[in-house]
Every structure is written in structure tokens, then in C-alpha cells.
Design goal:
TIM Barrel, about 230 residues, alpha/beta, single chain, about 35% helix
Length: about 230
Amino acid sequence: MTPRNLSRRIAPSLLSADFANLQAAVELAERAGADAFHLDVMDGHFVPNISFGPALVAAVRAHTRLPLDVHLMVDDPLAHVAALGKAGGDTLVFHLESRAEPSAVIREVRAMGRAVGIALRPDTPLAAAEPFLDHIDQLMVMSVRPGFSGQKFHPEVLPKVRTARERFASQGRAVDISIDGGVNVETGREAAAHGATFFVCGDFLFRGGDLPGNLQRLRRGIEEGAARALR
């Protein structure tokens, strides 16, 4: 189900890290085997909270060479993509439900030489993104309501993951399918079994008291789910 040139990767979500010691959190996660880092940008409008901006992305960039996956939970992605790309974001993921015209955002991100992704809220059907799926590098399936950490995983999004994976696989396209929200060993295993390849994880990793051990456990769960998917 998963194209051979797509590996399964884990991206710790820095929204759940200790902001007072962010450098140490980044370095610990990298030593533990993280594949990328996930940064949530919130504008207080698209979602109620306000979080990271370009300065924080640049600060993280200064302390790691791992890819930075930047999730724009903002009303107007076009107002932010240039600054976030310049700050060091490698993949810029914007919400289909934002006010921007998706094709315009995709063009802008591509013009900067960055990878581009589309995020879908749990209640947004995959069909809504169909006109743009041929032009993205990542599809992020939100498994919680965007804007708040610590929520429980919504298993009803898993068929969306499977349908998307089957679509991309039928075309031979290596498009990451990211799952974001409530990811732990059990939910990561199920998401992998349905075809997810990129796993955003915050609370389970950073607030469990054993980031290296939790990351290893999560990776084992993901590989178990992926093996089940390939049978």
C-alpha cells in the first residue's frame, strides 16, 4: 500500500515541549531518533490560540538540521508562507478550510522551493481536496480538532487515510500522509495500518517522562501497523 520510496517518519510536535528549554527538547528528540520536527503556527483567528511564528521557526532551525514541518493554522496562509519559508520551514502545510485559494498557496510555496501540504480537519471530506491532490507533497489528516494539544484521537478519520493512500498508490505517487493529533503507540499503529507515513506526536513524547523510550515504543507500534497493512 505504501510506495517503496516513502519511509515512515516521526515528527515530535514542539507545541508540547517545554518552551523554557526548547533547545534541550530539540536536541534530546534528535538524539532519540526523531525524523523531523513539527511546528504549529496559529493566528488566534482560524483557531482560538496563538502560538509560533517565524522567529521561533528560525530559532529551531538554528539547532537542528532535521526537516521542519510547519503547520499553518491561520486564516490567510499567503500572508505567512514567505516568512516561514525564509525562517527555515521545509514543508509548509496549510488548511483547505482557510480563506486562501489553495492553488495560489501551492504556487507560492513551490516558488520558494519548499514542499507543500494540505491539512484537513476531521470533518472535512477528502473529496474537498481532490482538485489539489495532484499538486502536493503531503496530505495532513487531522485526527483531532485543530488548535488544541492533548485531545483524544478521532478514529473516524482512518478511512480517509486509507482512501488517500489507495489513491496515491494507484498513481505511483510518493505523497506523505500525515496523521496529527492524539498519536500514541495504539493510534499510531492503527494509522500506519491504514497507510499513514508521517506521524506528528506531541503529548505522548514530551509529557510522558521518557522521550527516548516513548519514541522507540511509538516507532515499534508504527512498524507493526505498517506490516499489517502490507499483508
